[in-house]
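Let's sit down with a protein and look at its sequence and fold side by side. Go ahead whenever you are ready, and we will take it from there.
>
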Amino acid sequence: MEKVIAGRSIQVNEEGYLKDVNQWNKEVGTELAKEADIELGHRHWDVIDYLQKEHKNESPLSIRKIGKSDVVDIKEFYQLFPQGPLKTASKIAGIPKPASCI
């Protein structure tokens, strides 16, 4: 499925996750955040950078792992991404939905 995000034609799956992480850039992330009613600040970007790095390292993601990451604690993670924090943050970061998410 194709979707226009930040003026670019992006391939997404039926849940709206990017099919190709290489199509992601900060403008795409910002637009995806707006769709989730989130205005990105520097703490959001810290989390997004961490998620992308972990994805590149093929490291499985979970809320518990993020809480232990020293990037953000679980309480702040839920404040930054209030509706399904790991699903929402992963979508904004342009990475696939983590296996730990339903």
Summary: The radius of gyration is 13 Å. Residues 42-56 form the longest helix (15 residues).
